[in-house]
Structure formats: C-alpha cells, structure tokens
Specification:
The structure is a single chain. The chain is an alpha/beta fold and about 800 residues long. It is built from 24 helices and 22 strands. The strands form five sheets. It has a five-stranded mixed beta sheet with strand order 2-4-5-7-6. The protein has a five-stranded mixed beta sheet with strand order 15-8-9-17-16. Strands 10-13-14-12-11 form a five-stranded mixed beta sheet. Helix 2 packs antiparallel against helix 3 (about 55-75) and helix 11 runs antiparallel to helix 15. The longest helix is centred in the first third of the chain and has 66 residues, at about 195-260. It starts with a helix and ends in an 8-residue tail after the last helix.
Length: about 800
C-alpha cells in the first residue's frame, strides 16, 4: 500500500516555463500569495486531523481552504491546481456528509495532496509549468465514491476523472454553504501592512545608530556634569580664599590704624587712605565676581538638569521605537512549521517509515533573520532524524514500540535566548558506528579514550556520515556540520543527549535577536572585548598560582577548565595588575565549560551588534563588533571557538613564545586643581605615558583599587585627604608601598620638604615647574631614557 501511495503521489512536472500569454500575471501573483497562506494554515489542520480523524472542525476548515484555492486557481487560469483542489474538496465533502470514512491511508493521501498543491503553487510563483496530476485526482475521486485506493491504482489510467464543474467558484465560501451545526464566529480581520525586509532591516539599523549616538550624548553629558562638579568645588575654594583675604585685609587696616594713632600725624584717618580703599575695593570686587561665578554655575547646573531630563525622555522614546521595530522583526516559529511538516512527510515517504511531528511552544517568537538562517539546519535535522534515528516499522515492532515514530520540536524562551529542542524516539546515536567511521577518516586514533560527549560531537565534523550508502537523505556527510556551523555563527550553542534505543535530542540555544544583545565587557591589557551574556554563566576569582598550573574551577556543581583570554586572543597572558586575585569569566557553550582569566571585568550593558567584514568574520571567535559611547569600536568575542581551537593544538608542539611588549608606564596625577591636572596630564601624554587623575587623596585610593600606578605626582594641600596623609597611607599598604611618589607643591620650605622625605617620598618639586625639569625627574625615577615614554 505504501509503494502504491508513493506512486500515486509522484508527479513529473515539465521542465519548461509557464505560458503566461493568456494569463493576468498580477492576478497570478495575488493567487500565489493567497494560496501559500491557505496551504500553511491547512497544514496545521492536517496535523489536528491526524490526531483526531473525526474532527469536524478540521474537516470543514480544510474544505473551506480548498474551495478558496480551487476558485482562485480557476480565476487565475491555473486549471491543474483547480482540478486537484476540486478532487480533494470532493473527498472532504463526502467525509463530512458521512458518505465515506477517512482512515490513515486517506489522511496520508490528503497530506500528499496538500504537499503536491504546495509544490504546484511554488512552481507557478516561479513561472514554471505544472502538469495535470491525473493519477492523484483519480485517487481522490475514487475515495470520494467509497472505492478503495487499491482499485483506483489498478484502474487509475482507465478511470475517467470526475468532470470539472462548469461554473467558476468564488474566491471565498459564502456562509450559507457551510454545514448547518457548526458555531461560526466572525472575527474582524486585523489590518496588516507588508513591507520589504531590507527596508525593515535598514530601519532597525538606524534605530541602533540612534541608540549609539544617545549613548555618546549621555557620556558627554556625564563629562560635562563632572566638570560642573569640579567648577563647584573650585568656586567653594575661591569663596574660602576670599573670606580669608577679607579677614586679612581687615586685620591689616586695624593694625595700621593703631600704628597711625600712636603717631603725632592725625591729618588723615587710615580708612581715608587710597591704599586701604583700593585694597578693599579689589577684595569686594573679587567677592562679587565669585558670587557671579556661583550664579553662573547654578544656571549651568539647572540647564544640565534640563538636558538630562530631555535626554532621559528621548532615551525612553528611542527605546520604545527600537523595541517596536524589533517586534516587527519577530515572527512566530509557527510560520516555519508547515515547511518542516512537508520535509518530514517527504523524508518518511522516501524511506518507507511512519513519522509524525509533535510541537510544543511553537507560538514562541524569533528574529526573522534567525528563523531564516535556521530553516535549512532544522530541515537537515529532521531528515537526519528520519534517516538515522527513526527505525523502520518492523524494527520498531521488534523493539516493542509503536510502528509510527515521533519527532518532537519544542520552543521556549530562557532569558535573552530561544531554546529549540529537536528530538526523536528512535534508536539513538550508534556510537560504535561513529567511532568506526571516525577511525577510518583519521579523526580518532585507534584505541584512544573518548568521552561520550566527545564521541557524539564527531557527527558535526564536515563530511562525516555513518550511512552505508548514499541516498537522497543521507550518506554525503553534509547536514549536521551545517547545523553546527550556523548555530556558531549566530552566537548560539548546541548540545546532544542520546539514549540507546530511546532516541536523541539536540538542544539549540540561540539569541532571540541579532540586532541587540546583552554583553559583558572585559579587559586584556589596553584592549576591551565584549562577550555575549547568553554564554556567560557567572564570574569568579582564583589565586594567581592556580592559573599557571591549569586544572579546573568548580562552579555550580560543574568543573570549568582554566584558560587565559590573553593567550587565546594572542595578546600575552592576563596579569590583573592591582588585583590580589585573577578575575574569571565562566563560559558555557554546549558541553564546553571554560573559566577564562582576564585583567578586569568592567561590567555589562546592552549593545547594538554591528556586522564585521568578511575578512574579519572569517577569524575564529569573532561574533561581531559594537560602537561605544565614546566612538570606540569593541570586538564581540565568541569565546567557545577560541577555547576549542586552543584545546586541539598538538600537545607536542609548544605554543610560540609570546614576546611581551614593554609596558607603557602609568602615572597618576593627584591635585585638587583642575588646571594642574589637565596641564600635567597633557605633558605626560605628549611623552607617551598613560595618565590617570584624581582630585584628592580619597579619590586616588578609590582609583588605585582598580589599577596601581607606577608613579604618582602628588600635591600637598587638598580637601578630604592631603598629600602627606595619602603618602603615609600608601607606604603602610603592601600593595601600594612600591609606587614612586613625586610631590609637586607650592610649599617649598625646608620643613615641608623634610616631612615629605621622612614619609618616603622619592622626589620633591616646587610649583610652578618647568616641563624639562618635570620630565627629567620622571625619567630618572622610572629609569627610562630621556625623551622616551615607552
């Protein structure tokens, strides 16, 4: 019966173009679009009918869809589609009127008929000719008249098809033609707009650019706010200095008044002298100027708050706009289901197996680009399940299973990921056959010990197949390697779970969208990298000695192999200077568990993913790039391929020694004067030093929690913690005691100088300094040649 059914469903279409000389091509396109939607909808009804052959709702829904397809095909002039649709509708009409019953063979014939309709509509859309499916039309007509399919097959060529109805059917079914029973609910259709995919992608990219510019504005506004805070502190110092000046002026006037009173000359009152009048006038003028500066600072502060409010409002609108555009790119997984069902039916038909598809959570949404790129891999996985996983009916009976196998696809969302599970209840992976084939191809040495997960992962090798012979479904070794490659390129992961005799399940973890993602930022040396947070399971710290010895890091009941991100990206080992322990980024991808050491973990944020050129994209481990608020470009790393690539390096061949570049010295400038910090910082940067600044002693200590400088240029008089207190604290701290300190201050007296040297200060320089003198002392302290900062 299966062979007969396959023969009936097989059709050869002519390899020629569709004759459109007598057709309205615009009407043809409308029909193809409408028929495609109706066939996709019918596929779901077919699945329901397979579960319940007496489902009246499914039968009437299929009948209605076929009636519309038939009428549209005849109006568009594609009569072969109209004839097949009419024959299928006649069968469903007979079943609804209980003139015949629909058994499993009939349902299989219906599925084949809908597959054939889909193929014919696709060919019409491509303007290719379609043949009249006489044998299939005869089979449907025979079943509709209550005759078994076997009779139709034996007399198929002789039996005349039922004559076509002379009238043209309408494009939709009137409600009066529906069976009387049924509770029909008329719903107002929701209006939809079709737009080009490339236009939508450009709009999403523009929204991403707006987000980048907004981040840059936020960063610049933050810098402006910091400058305003500095200005406020400067104004406070100025007011304090003016108050002391006024006190000093008053004291001098009183003292002079007393001296003048002791003399015999009482011609002028001291307050009437010009020198006192001028000094007081200048003091008061300075006070007024300070008050004006305070008023101006308050005005700028108010404007800054307004700008921050406006930027916050713009940020909300921009986020809503971006989220809305992203929603337009999201499509339900259901949109792919009809195609997957057809692939599964065709594969089962070619292998003579009985397979059904079960779905869980197929209403879940994915980015359209992700779904399109995963279509071919999912089709490969379904064909692979039928060809290698599901047994034949005889084998399943002997194993105590039902003759019909099951392939299950489950869709669910976990955080920012979409998880796809594709499993079957077949025989499971044949690890003996996998090992045998791997040894034949030289992938595994004979006798080598492999874990089950390593053995299973061999099926992802290019060209790998355990099939004994090449067929349309298997044997060429092209399939699972395509799946693994596409998942990696999307930044996802792939796991395998298999049980002998019970089946195999593939778990795919994919980003919900490719345009936006959450990422963790890390630093190696002077370079920042972003790592998608979907692959990060946590962070940790270890002692420095443990990293050099290798081994594993335990986290969440699992062991994570230790690696060094600096070595993985070819930038030299991570040092984490200033940290007592090495920061670790815990990465999980499939069966891979890696604890990757970095210099620093900066934090996490949402980023806009930008594609990189083909030259860069071909480098293993690069997922894309993003643009930061300051305009810098940060590479997005996929750590798993880097770890795997490092792990497969021949152990006999030691990695090439990394030539460590000479480190650029880090100099910290600590001064409460904004001008001094900027001037001194620019002088040092001009001589190729790396510079970090702090406004007082407490600020310097906070910054040294992150990085310890090589040299500190330190002022004495500062708020909160002065230079002496800071130097004393540093010399008492084992982590900071070796930092070189050069004091630069206006206090040049011997008493101040001696106290600095008693605290352990290395050099003492007076303000204002000359640039050559400053740089000579810096170079001498750091023991580097003059004129060089590297």
């Amino acid at each position: 019966m299966a062979a007969l059914l396959a023969r009936v469903l097989t059709a050869e279409d002519p390899d020629e173009a569709l004759d459109t000389s007598r057709l309205d091509e615009e009407l043809l396109d409308i029909f193809v679009e409408e028929a495609g939607d109706l066939l996709d909808h019918s596929d779901g009804l077919l699945a329901q009918l397979r579960q319940d052959a007496d489902s009246r709702e499914s039968l009437i829904g299929l009948q209605r869809n076929l009636h519309t397809i038939k009428g549209g095909a005849r109006m568009a002039g594609v009569f072969s589609i109209g004839e097949l649709g009419h024959a299928m509708e006649s069968l469903l009409e007979a079943v609804v009127e209980q003139r015949c019953e629909l058994d499993r063979t009939g349902i299989g014939l219906l599925e084949g008929g809908f597959d054939r309709l889909h193929a014919m509509v696709t060919r019409v859309g491509e303007r290719r000719a379609v043949a009249m499916p006489h044998a299939l039309v005869d089979a449907f007509n025979a079943l509709a008249r209550g005759r078994p399919l076997l009779d139709a097959g034996e007399e198929g060529e002789a039996a005349a098809p039922e004559p076509a109805r002379p009238e043209l059917a309408p494009l939709s079914t009137p409600l009066a033609e529906l069976p009387a029973e049924e509770d029909t609910t008329i719903r107002a259709p929701q209006e939809q707009v079709r737009i080009r995919a490339d236009l939508l992608d450009r709009l999403v990219n523009y929204a991403g650019e707006v987000a980048i510019y907004r981040a840059r504005l936020e960063q610049q506004l933050g810098a402006f706010r910091a400058a305003m805070n500095e200005m406020e502190q400067t104004n406070a110092r100025l007011r304090d200095q003016l108050r002391r000046l006024e006190i000093e002026t008053e004291a001098q006037i009183i003292a002079r008044y007393q001296r003048e009173g002791d003399s015999d000359d009482v011609t002028f009152d001291p307050l009437e002298l010009d020198r006192f009048s001028t000094l007081q006038q200048l003091s008061r003028a300075l006070g007024e100027s300070a008050a004006d500066m305070t008023s101006l600072q308050q005005t700028l502060d108010d404007l800054t708050r307004q700008y921050e409010t406006l930027l916050l409002q713009q940020s909300r609108v921009s986020s809503d706009l971006q989220e809305g555009l992203m929603r337009t790119r999201m499509v339900p997984f259901d949109a792919l289901v009809p195609r997957l069902r057809r692939v599964l039916r065709q594969s089962a038909q070619e292998t003579g197996k009985q397979v059904q598809l079960k779905l869980e959570g197929s209403q879940g949404e994915l980015d359209r680009n992700v779904l399109e790129r995963m279509t071919a891999p999912l089709e490969h996985m379904l064909r692979n399940s039928v060809a290698h996983g599901i047994e034949s009916p005889d084998q399943r009976r002997r194993a105590g299973k039902g003759e019909e196998g099951t392939v299950r696809i489950a869709v669910r969302r976990e955080g920012s990921e979409v998880v796809l599970e594709v499993g079957d209840d077949g025989a499971g992976l044949d690890r003996a056959a996998i090992r045998r084939r791997a040894e034949e191809r030289g992938l595994v040495r004979p006798g080598a010990t492999l874990t089950d997960s390593d053995m299973d992962a061999l099926i992802f090798e290019p060209g790998f197949s355990t099939a004994g012979e090449v067929s349309r479904l298997a044997g060429r070794g092209v399939g699972m390697d395509v799946v693994a490659s596409e998942v990696r390129q999307l930044g996802g992961s792939l796991d395998i779970t298999t049980r002998p005799g019970q089946g195999t399940t593939f778990t795919l973890r994919l980003p919900q969208t490719l345009a936006l993602t959450q990422a963790v930022f890390v630093r190696i040396g002077d370079t920042r990298f972003a790592v998608p947070i979907a692959s990060v399971r946590g962070v940790g710290r270890i002692e420095r000695g443990r990293l050099a010895g290798g081994g594993a890091y335990a986290y969440g009941g699992e062991d994570y192999a230790l690696h060094d991100l600096g070595l993985l990206v070819g930038q030299g080992p991570a040092k984490a200077e200033g940290h007592l322990q090495m920061p670790l980024l815990l990465v999980r991808s499939g069966e891979l568990r890696a604890a990757v050491a970095v210099d620093a973990i900066i934090g996490s944020r949402e980023i806009v993913v930008k594609p990189v050129g083909p030259q860069v994209a071909s480098i293993p481990g690069i997922f894309g790039a993003t643009i930061m608020g300051d305009g810098s470009v940060v590479v997005i790393l996929d750590v798993a391929p880097l770890v795997r690539r490092h792990a497969v390096l021949p152990r006999e061949a030691a990695p090439a020694p990394v030539v460590e570049q000479r480190k650029v010295p880090l100099v910290m400038v600590v001064d409460d004067s904004v001008t001094m910090r900027k001037v001194t910082g620019r002088v040092l940067e001009r001589h190729n030093f790396e510079v970090v600044t702090a406004k007082d002693g407490l600020d310097a200590l906070e910054r040294m929690d992150e990085r310890v400088p090589d040299l500190m240029l330190l002022d004495i008089e500062m708020p909160r913690m002065d230079g002496y207190e800071l130097a004393k604290h540093m010399k008492a701290d084992p982590r900071l005691r070796d930092v070189l300190i050069m004091m630069i201050t206006s206090r040049t007296g011997e008493k101040h100088r001696q106290r600095a040297f008693d605290l352990g200060v290395d050099r003492y320089l007076g303000k204002p300094y000359q640039e050559p003198e400053l740089m000579r002392n810096v170079h001498e302290l750091l023991r580097i040649g003059h004129g060089r900062g590297d």
